[in-house]
Amino acid sequence: MTTSSGVPSSRNAAGGWTRRRLHAVSGKFDDYPWMIGVIGTIIALAILAGVALLLRTDRQARHEHALERAQSVASVVAASLGGNIAVYDALLMEMVREAEDPATPLFPDRVRDRVRFGQALSRDFLDDAYVVDKTGRIAAPLDRTQGAPVSVADRDYFRSHESSPSLGLYISQPYASRTHGGRLSVALTRRIAAPDHSFAGVAVLALRLDRLNTLVSDVDSADLKSIDIVEEKGTVLACDPCAGAQPGQLVVLPGDAARNGDLAAALAFPRGTRAKAYRSVRVPGASMFVVVTPSTDDLLHEWQRHALLFGAIALACAATLMAGSWLLVAAMRTRAAAAARLMSLSMTDGLTGLANRRALDAKLGSEWRRAKRSGSPLSILFADIDDFKHFNDAYGHSTGDDVLRAVAKNIGGHVRRDSDMAAR
Known about the structure:
The strands form two sheets. Strands 1, 2, 3, 4, 5 and 6 form a six-stranded antiparallel beta sheet that branches. A four-stranded antiparallel beta sheet has the order 8-7-10-9. It has two domains: 62-297, Beta-Lactamase; 350-424, Reverse transcriptase/Diguanylate cyclase domain (Alpha-Beta Plaits, 2-Layer Sandwich), CATH 3.30.70.270. The chain has helices at 7-31, 34-100, 109-121, 156-163, 209-217, 296-346, 357-374, 388-395, 397-412, and strands at residues 126-133, 138-141, 170-171, 175-176, 184-193, 199-208, 224-231, 236-240, 279-282, 288-294. It has nine helices and ten strands. By secondary structure, it is α+β, with helices and mostly antiparallel strands. α2 runs antiparallel to α3, α2 (34-100) runs antiparallel to α6 and α8 (388-395) packs across α9 (397-412). The longest helix is centred in the N-terminal third of the chain and has 67 residues, at 34-100. Helices cover 51% and strands 14% of the residues. InterPro entries: Diguanylate_Cyclase, GGDEF_dom, Nucleotide_cyclase, Rev_trsase/Diguanyl_cyclase. It catalyses: 2 GTP = 3',3'-c-di-GMP + 2 diphosphate. The chain crosses the membrane at residues 32-55, 307-329. Keywords: Membrane, Transmembrane, Transmembrane helix.
């Protein structure tokens, strides 16, 4: 019973529309079964494409995570090294103040004690300290028992301060120490000025490169390919692992690439080809960078394992769906052919092959309606074989059947139009 609101009627109408649409779609599939195969193939390909997209997204996410980890490690190492350099720079500035004060010794004992205290705090990074006069000779070493004065006039830090009054803190290129048996060191230096602001010498703190290397080797680098400390001119100061390039070895950088923050050339270290993915952080207050490269080999190995697993599952599902779709198409075609044969048998006279009474009734109904719509005439011709019973009695039913088939063939051969029908 329909209420005044009309809700049941609306629901029934909606349900009827849905059933009609489903019936129409089902009819389309019955008429064109290949559409099921095409749709199944498209869905299978969409599954493969979706899994491929997910795997690519996962790879990018893993890559980004590795770079974030590299950035974090580079920042930690740079901050730690920057903190040490800030302490050393404070010691250098105190050495410069004392050296520039005419009322105090060139390298007072209290400053020496602070340098030794700094050595203890910095895990022996600090290798030596001394004041160089304007001629390039070590005038005030940290160790008073040092022998004859040693000249460092050929060192890059001495020449740089001598020619550049406003240089500030300068980090030298690695060198073999002349006061410690050729041990590789790098110098942190500041210029000492005379009262008239002329060049009066250099205050030097020397860092041991092998001790500096422990700063990066102590980092948990299981998921990292390498950690390097590179001076802005391209010299390797520390590395872990040091497969080819060693501390003190120069890495050729094009022009001012490192100063501009572009360390792409640093990825071509002599140790071999390195990954293009890396992160670098400038050490605060120093002309050096910490370069961290993630281990893409381990990253890709784990990703490839997942990709093979999920790819195989997706491929199996897609192949099953495609095969099932086309098998269903074949089954529907077989069913349609069988149904057509059954329909043909139900509408055909078994002896003569002409249409039977059922087919004739259906044809008469449709042609009668068409004739009424168009106003055209409808013709029916009845053909009868006279005295056929006597023929059967005289020659037998088998011969009579042959005669019936011959007559039916003759009549059926004169059917020309699609609307014509010969029936028995």
